[in-house]
Backbone:
């Protein structure tokens, strides 16, 4: 009876029911909260600025201490190449002995792995959104730039992780490589072999090169846009150079040559975006004006904010026990000062300086108001010359020598040109010496040894093999990721 | 002023029906009002009615009677013949009436001829008597056939107690106030042992530290890595809306009508995702009908520091302990000489008679006061209640206090079909923490250190040696300057309730609640504070200020429906609700306050160096619905079913909505034919319930992928964003599965009352951190994993062991016991890792570890065989049974459980000739404690500070000594060992109260006073414990004595 009454009433008020249904359906939206202190990704990536900020965040993390801000450049990686003479109490003393299980070193390696993958996760969330975003919300060519940068950077980071934590393809191409993570999720990404992982890296780099064809770095300068600004981001040429590096690591010489030639060609054009550093920038009146980092030649460098606060604790008298410098004797050997008379090589001449009693490695020194401060090289144009020379040393030795001489000429060694008639093996020797000189304090020499699976690391007390070349992945990664 | 004449008449006529019984019997009112031809009053006329009502009141107050005649009489119960006090006697048609006194007598005067008197009392049928002249009219009242019965308030709606199957316990406001007058929860924990206060030996009786409570055991992990605090706190519902603990603590106890503890699934299910830890439902008083009634409660509360747990050395003993401990021995002759100098300097002080009682310095006897005033009254159409209170608590540490000012207005408006009730309350609270700092700073001071130097100046530093290494500061120094620790809040709450009775058995209810709370805190340390000794002049002095704003909005719409068919009774409740909670808090710090009196942040010379503003911001929303059915057949077979659906913004996007349910069944055995006639068994009810509830307790945004911005670094002119964590969109609430069996027994004509409950509660999907491979980009995320079980019983017994015929004089005994065991059934990998991290820490106290099969409160220690009499070293037992001197965390075993096995209370109360007395003892048995005092002040005692006396008597000194504690010269730090795990059994005299009620004295009978009562209370008068440990280390415990007066005008 009552129910009937109610029913009749509610028939008359069907609109009420409709309203209730409407409320119920909009409830889910209402339950989606928008905190101020933390921004849900759905909202963050609604606008172009979200993508720009997210990339800026990744670059910020890249110059952090665990990554290129120290350990992946002048810190751990360079220590492993034995270019420094460490104090007996240096924090890196165990790393220099390849004692990767020592607590401090292990923590340092774990931190590197974790932070690198954290950057990858931050890129993955961006890629997840950029792939479903409407390109119309982006201005100019930004859609392509953000997408290409993120894709390229993700592959680039994986390449460096592979170079650190997996055996080289020469040593064991079928060993399991590092996980190639392409999703922001709690799911664990499986491992593939080193070669397969390299293929994934190369695929993504290729895709990035393709997308970055729209990069404004390839346009000429306009009054309101300096294309050289793009060198601080993972630009088109960074992707190309990284591709050359990846192919070279894999042993695909044809492609490695192809992409390094592209860099060389661009580098030699009049008005190149990364021209050789002019001698006048090195022969300066004041020390602080000297471009000892050869900044114009960086294809990709990080705008390292607050760099002085880090490097001064490694490369000046403030370093104390933790000083990271080759001894004067070692520097003499590296730069062949006594042996060949290369003492005037800018890299040596301008690369060292006294601070108090001792001579320090001066490449990263940050002078007050220095015009070349806060630049951390990640990819140099010279690397492409070395890659090309290494590939051509057998087929076109003269061209190989020429490539080396080009680099040397810009290092104040025009008077010491290498002769055309060097044997391939001699060329290989020269390339090795160049790697040592050019990338001193940049963490690349270790990978050079590793790429060739060299049994000898100059200055190491033991013979090198995968026990040294393959750094251990974190315990938690093994335990909870089921890694082998 | 213009008002409608008929409305005025209406209001007068309605006023005359002011009487409790009739209001409850709504049908009757409707009938009477209808019968008199007064149709229901239109809402439009309400303001007129209100004015009319107020005028009526004024008239009734100032009107004088002439040519009156007198009616007297006695009212008795028709069955027992007992006289009935408190019966309302009203003259029909006029706003005039009286009540019977304690002997059942009444007297009323009137001037006109014929009149009708209405006699009414709750639980009795009304009697109408036409009277034409003066005389004695004795009346007998007949009890109502159908029991009105107690109702159980479960928040959103009420249930009849006799057909309800949930496990609840209800405590009336009166009962609470009998046990104590401090605060609601303080009294509640003494009455129901299931509501357990977690011992806080550190904070003691600090009035500004919130206590932690549990209802039926621990369901979640406490503060694992500092992300959530007390995850076991029950949900508090104040007048139907969720409320925070602070508000309940500061609630004026005099306003409380009743508290209901909801313990099992049937009772809790309607609170769904928040109810896993149990629910405490608090209802405040609603204004009563009648002429204005003013109640005043005032008390003076004396808090006395309880330092009996301290057993510190005196000056001479301390120095001797230092000497024995080898503080003045060295192989090096020069050092030895220096040591001897120090020793001699101290000895000089001892011989000079210095024996400072440091413990007495920061403490005081605090005498606080509390006043509360309550005005109520009104007609059955409009009722009003106004409350005001001031509560000033003075803690036992000097300068520590808590002041609460509160006020509120409650208005109820009612017509035949519609009821509106609105309650507005405002609370302002101001609390100071003691500028004297932590109590332990005084407990560690050496008794041979004098307070004042020869000139009578306070000593700032003590230095008995010649170098600064031995310099010790005087903690009193900072207390003498204008240091300030202040926190404040203002809370404004407005709750609106509307009810529409469509039919007799169908009602719609709407509620809307708004609470706004603005907390703030200030910490000021003047320039002369010892913190700033080495600071630059412009940085001396600091001021910390935080401001917050919390806003809670809640609304719900419900329907109540009841149906009787044959012997069947069905209640249905449905509700939809919605809530929005926002919180915002900002803090900043400034420095450079040159003058001690410039105690405001605006006088700072600059912001704190390298500091940045901080704070938090939260938004939490939820929406949901409840369906609840209560069915009973012939009042014998009972059935309850509840279903709750909740959607919350705190849950993962994939699990936005969750549902909870419960089923309950009951059997009123006493209503079966074979027991119905029994005089001995008044109630015998068997209950069973089962169901799910949930608890949230995780940060709002863990389920959602969010980004944050870097705060102190940028990239090439842009500030970057980064992912805050690894979101788990599958995250959901912890679920708790409760099962409960209970028995309610009332015997011997209500003389004996007993309740017994047995329960198991399994927490499923406990929130824990999951360790991920770092290749996901993060090290952990939150997941529902882990399972814990609580199992236990509770029993309550109360008996009126003696009562006089009139029931006015009685003695009641009561006792209760609660037992709970907690067991972890499943834990995550990251918890195992947490255990390993804990093992690596070099702590001298047992650290929390979680292992399957063990309680969450397990005390982990290495088994010890005691001290080797030969060399004073400790002998340990390894896990494999070997004996060793070596300590290893690998040998940690479960050595005890910090939770009591059983706890409960026992007590009595009674009243004889208006003089009442009552006492409650609480006890805890079983369960262990790690004796921190022994570890810190005896075993690992740092002899440069004051120590426990036992350092002197119980430590090993020479070979052959059978000692409890290691060698006095051994300065190594003892790690957790079973030697310090002690059984903790305590007996506390939690509450004693006496009162005298002046109801029969001339003071009340012959004055405007309606009632007067004087009481005295004492809380925590003594504590007997099997463990000798210092209680109240950073703030001492107190004993409370209070004298209170209660008057009604």
Residues:
């Amino acid at each position: 009876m009552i129910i009937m009454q109610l029913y009749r009433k509610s028939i008359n008020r069907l609109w009420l029911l409709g309203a209730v249904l409407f409320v119920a359906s909009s409830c889910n939206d209402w339950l989606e909260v928008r905190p101020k202190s933390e921004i849900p990704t759905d909202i963050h990536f609604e606008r172009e600025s979200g993508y720009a900020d997210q990339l800026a965040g990744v670059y910020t993390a890249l110059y952090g201490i665990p990554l290129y801000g120290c350990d992946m450049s002048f810190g751990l990686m360079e220590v492993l190449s034995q270019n420094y003479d460490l104090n007996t109490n240096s924090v890196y003393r165990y790393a220099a002995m390849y004692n990767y299980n020592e607590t401090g070193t292990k923590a340092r390696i774990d931190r590197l792995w974790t932070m690198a993958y954290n950057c990858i996760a931050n890129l993955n969330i961006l890629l997840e959104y950029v792939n479903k975003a409407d390109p119309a919300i982006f201005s100019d060519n930004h859609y392509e730039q953000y997408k290409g940068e993120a894709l390229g950077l993700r592959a680039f980071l994986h390449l460096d992780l592979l170079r650190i934590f997996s055996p080289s393809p020469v040593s064991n191409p079928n060993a399991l490589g590092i996980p190639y993570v392409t999703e922001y999720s709690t799911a664990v990404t499986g491992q593939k072999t080193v070669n397969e992982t390299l293929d994934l890296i190369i695929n993504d780099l290729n895709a990035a090169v393709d997308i970055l064809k729209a990069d404004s770095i390839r346009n000429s300068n306009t009054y309101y846009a300096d294309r050289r600004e793009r060198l601080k981001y993972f630009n088109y040429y960074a992707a190309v150079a990284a591709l050359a590096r990846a192919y070279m690591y894999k042993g695909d010489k044809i492609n490695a040559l192809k992409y390094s030639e592209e860099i060389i060609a661009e580098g030699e054009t009049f008005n190149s975006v990364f021209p050789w550093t002019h001698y006048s920038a090195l022969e300066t009146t004041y020390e602080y004006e000297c471009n000892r980092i050869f900044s114009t030649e960086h294809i990709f460098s990080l705008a390292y904010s607050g760099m002085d606060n880090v490097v001064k604790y490694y490369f000046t008298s403030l370093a104390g026990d933790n000083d990271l410098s080759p001894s004067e004797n070692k520097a003499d050997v590296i730069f062949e000062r006594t042996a060949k008379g290369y003492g005037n090589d800018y890299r040596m001449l301008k690369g060292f300086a006294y601070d108090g009693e001792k001579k320090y490695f001066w490449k990263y020194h940050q002078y007050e108001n220095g015009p070349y401060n806060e630049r951390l090289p990640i990819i140099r144009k010279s690397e492409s010359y070395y890659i090309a020379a290494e590939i051509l040393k057998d087929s076109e030795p003269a061209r190989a020598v020429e490539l080396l001489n080009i680099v040397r000429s810009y290092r104040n060694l025009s008077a010491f040109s290498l002769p055309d008639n060097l044997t391939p093996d001699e060329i290989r020797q020269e390339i090795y010496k160049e790697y040592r000189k050019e990338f001193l304090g940049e963490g690349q020499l270790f990978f050079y040894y590793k790429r060739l699976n060299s049994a000898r690391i100059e200055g190491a007390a033991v013979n090198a093999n995968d026990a040294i070349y393959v750094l251990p992945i974190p315990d938690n990664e093994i335990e909870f990721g089921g890694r082998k | 002023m213009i008002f409608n004449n008929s409305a005025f008449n209406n209001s007068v006529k309605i006023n005359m029906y002011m009487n409790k019984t009739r209001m409850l019997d709504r049908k009757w009112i409707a009938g009477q009002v209808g019968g008199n031809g007064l149709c229901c009053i239109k809402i439009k006329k309400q303001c007129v009615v209100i004015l009319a009502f107020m005028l009526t009141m004024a008239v009734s107050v100032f009107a004088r009677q002439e040519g009156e005649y007198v009616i007297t009489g006695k009212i008795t119960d028709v069955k027992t013949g007992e006289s009935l006090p408190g019966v309302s006697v009203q003259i029909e048609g006029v706003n005039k009436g009286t009540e019977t006194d304690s002997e059942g007598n009444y007297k009323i005067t009137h001037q006109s001829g014929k009149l009708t008197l209405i006699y009414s009392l709750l639980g009795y049928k009304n009697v109408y008597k036409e009277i034409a002249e003066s005389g004695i009219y004795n009346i007998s009242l007949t009890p109502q056939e159908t029991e009105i019965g107690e109702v159980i308030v479960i928040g959103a709606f009420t249930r009849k107690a006799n057909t309800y199957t949930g496990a609840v316990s209800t405590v009336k406001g009166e009962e609470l106030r009998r046990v104590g007058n401090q605060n609601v929860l303080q009294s509640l924990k003494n009455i129901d042992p299931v509501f357990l206060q977690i011992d806080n030996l550190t904070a003691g009786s600090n009035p500004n530290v919130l206590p932690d409570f549990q209802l039926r055991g621990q369901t979640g992990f406490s503060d694992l890595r500092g992300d959530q605090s007390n995850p076991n706190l029950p949900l508090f519902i104040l007048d139907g809306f969720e409320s925070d603990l602070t508000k309940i603590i500061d609630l004026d106890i005099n306003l409380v009508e009743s508290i209901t503890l909801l313990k099992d699934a049937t009772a809790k299910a309607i609170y769904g995702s928040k109810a896993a830890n149990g629910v405490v439902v608090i209802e405040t008083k609603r204004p009563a009908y009648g002429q204005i009634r003013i109640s005043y409660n005032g008390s003076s509360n004396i808090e006395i520091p309880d330092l009996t747990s301290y057993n510190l050395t005196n000056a001479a003993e301390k120095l001797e302990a230092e000497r024995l401990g080898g503080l003045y021995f060295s192989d090096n002759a020069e050092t030895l000489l220096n040591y001897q100098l120090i020793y001699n300097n101290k000895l000089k002080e001892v011989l000079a008679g210095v024996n400072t009682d440091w413990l007495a310095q920061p403490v005081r006897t605090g005498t606080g006061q509390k006043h509360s005033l309550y005005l109520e009254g009104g007609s059955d159409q409009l009722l009003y209640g106004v409350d005001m209170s001031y509560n000033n608590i003075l803690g036992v540490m000097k300068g520590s206090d808590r002041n609460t000012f509160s006020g509120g207005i409650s208005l109820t408006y009612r017509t035949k079909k519609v009821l509106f009730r609105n309650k507005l309350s405002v609370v302002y609270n101001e609390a100071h923490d003691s500028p004297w700092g932590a109590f332990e700073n005084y407990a560690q001071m050496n008794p041979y250190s004098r307070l004042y130097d020869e000139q009578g100046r306070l000593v700032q530093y003590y230095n008995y040696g010649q170098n600064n290494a031995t310099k010790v500061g005087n903690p009193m120094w900072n207390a003498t300057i204008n240091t300030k620790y202040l926190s404040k809040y203002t809370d404004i709450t407005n709750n609106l309730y509307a009810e529409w009775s469509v039919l007799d058995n169908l009602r719609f209810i709407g509620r809307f609640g708004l609470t706004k709370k603005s907390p703030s805190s200030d910490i000021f340390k003047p320039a002369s504070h010892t913190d700033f000794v080495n600071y630059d002049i412009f940085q001396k002095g600091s001021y910390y200020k935080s401001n917050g704003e919390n806003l809670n909005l809640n609304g719900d719409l419900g329907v109540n429906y009841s149906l009787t068919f044959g012997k069947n009774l069905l209640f249905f409740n449905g509700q939809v609700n919605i809530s929005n909670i926002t919180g915002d808090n900002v803090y900043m710090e400034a420095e450079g306050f040159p003058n001690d009196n410039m105690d405001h942040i605006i006088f700072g010379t600059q912001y704190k160096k390298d500091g940045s503003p901080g704070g938090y911001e939260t938004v939490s929303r939820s929406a949901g619905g409840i369906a609840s059915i209560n069915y009973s057949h012939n009042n014998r077979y009972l059935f309850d079913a509840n279903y709750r659906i909740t959607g919350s913004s705190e849950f993962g996007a994939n699990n936005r909505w969750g549902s909870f349910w419960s089923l309950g069944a009951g059997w009123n055995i006493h209503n079966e034919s074979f027991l119905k006639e029994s005089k001995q068994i008044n109630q015998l009810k068997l209950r069973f319930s089962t169901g799910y509830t949930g608890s949230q307790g995780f940060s709002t945004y863990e389920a959602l992928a969010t980004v944050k911005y870097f705060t102190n670094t940028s990239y090439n002119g842009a500030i970057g964003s980064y992912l805050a964590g690894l979101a788990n969109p599958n995250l959901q609430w912890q679920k708790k599965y409760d099962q409960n069996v209970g028995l309610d027994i009332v015997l011997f004509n209500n003389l004996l009352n007993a309740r017994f409950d047995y329960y198991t509660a399994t927490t499923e999907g406990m929130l824990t951190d999951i360790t991920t491979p770092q290749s996901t980009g993060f090290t952990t995320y939150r997941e529902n994993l882990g399972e814990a079980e609580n199992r236990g019983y509770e029993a309550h017994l109360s008996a009126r062991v003696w009562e006089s015929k009139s029931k006015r004089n009685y003695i009641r005994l009561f006792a209760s016991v609660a037992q709970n065991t907690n067991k972890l059934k499943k834990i995550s990998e990251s918890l195992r890792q947490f255990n390993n991290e804990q093992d690596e820490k070099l702590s001298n106290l047992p650290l929390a570890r979680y292992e399957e099969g063990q309680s969450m409160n397990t005390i982990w220690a290495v088994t010890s065989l005691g001290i080797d009499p030969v060399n004073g070293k400790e002998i340990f037992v390894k896990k494999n049974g070997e004996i060793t001197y070596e300590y290893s965390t690998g040998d940690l075993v479960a050595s005890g459980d910090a939770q009591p096995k059983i706890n409960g209370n026992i007590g009595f109360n009674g009243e004889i000739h208006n003089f009442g007395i009552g006492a409650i003892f609480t006890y805890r048995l079983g369960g262990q404690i790690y004796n921190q005092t022994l570890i810190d002040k005896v075993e690992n005692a740092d002899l440069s500070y004051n120590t426990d006396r036992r350092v002197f008597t119980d430590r090993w000194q020479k070979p052959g000594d059978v000692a409890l504690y290691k060698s006095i010269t051994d300065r190594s730090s003892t790690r957790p060992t079973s030697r310090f795990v002690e059984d903790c059994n305590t007996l506390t005299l939690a509450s004693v109260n006496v009162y005298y009620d002046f109801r029969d004295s001339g003071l009340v009978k012959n004055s405007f006073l309606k009632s007067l009562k004087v009481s005295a209370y004492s809380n925590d008068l003594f504590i007997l414990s099997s463990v000798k440990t210092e209680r109240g280390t950073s703030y001492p415990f107190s004993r409370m004595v209070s004298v209170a007066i209660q008057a009604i005008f």
